[in-house]
Amino acid sequence: MTIEAMKPQPLSITGSRRRTVLGLLAALAAFPLRVLAAEWNKPAFEAHAIPDALKAIGATSIAESDKIELKAPEIAENGAIVPVEITSRIPGTEAVYIIAEKNPQPLVAEFDFAGATDPFISTRIKMGETARVRVIVRAGGKFYATAREVKVTIGGCGG
Amino acid sequence: MADQMKIRATLQNDVADVKVLMFHPMETGLRKDPSSGDIIPLHFIKKVFATHNGKTVLDAQWSQAVSKNPFLNFRVRGAKAGDKIAVGWEDNKGEKASIETTLG
Question: Which of B51, B68, B71 sits opposite A33 (nearest CB)?
Fold first, then answer.
């Protein structure tokens, strides 16, 4: 890229257009936050196969990473309550996804961080049977993952 | 809506450690009613959001595989006493709840 191309381009918005843009921004600012939140990713959450879920979240290429700390029990007596704690040490972490690999619909949750939120999440999930819990981190538009096996004594999806 | 949620936030230096409990059945749609034998329909929290002084800090999407009465713990940096932390959810039936706390 030449130096010339890197120079900021002058804004080519005319007066009236500019007022419209400002008006639109003001209207958006007045909206409740949840309206602006992302739509629930139906194809990802309703996918029965892991590759379909990954495709739906845009994770076409995933690198294994040792910078994701995943705490989960080795043995979970009750699959209905499996504590999962995730800390990402990958700079610029934007989102964390939890996948229970043998659940009927493997994608369990997506957490998108904004502002000054620590890339840390602790929650509890259901697991149908013994499986790997896979955590995917999105950072700078790239995807990283780690996994841990959790032995489940009593499954927690049906009953 | 205090009966639908509980929130506890503790401040350590400039980090707010926020713990939330949401009272919700999180039905998977796979469970049968033990008395009637009928399938209990899918009923789960789809979206959760958290704000710090009105600004979004966490935006989550969930499936029915988050445990019943979901627990969530997250941490917000740059927080100070008097700041407000709010958490809300919306389920697949359009039911909503939210709760707010002031950092002490």
Answer: B51
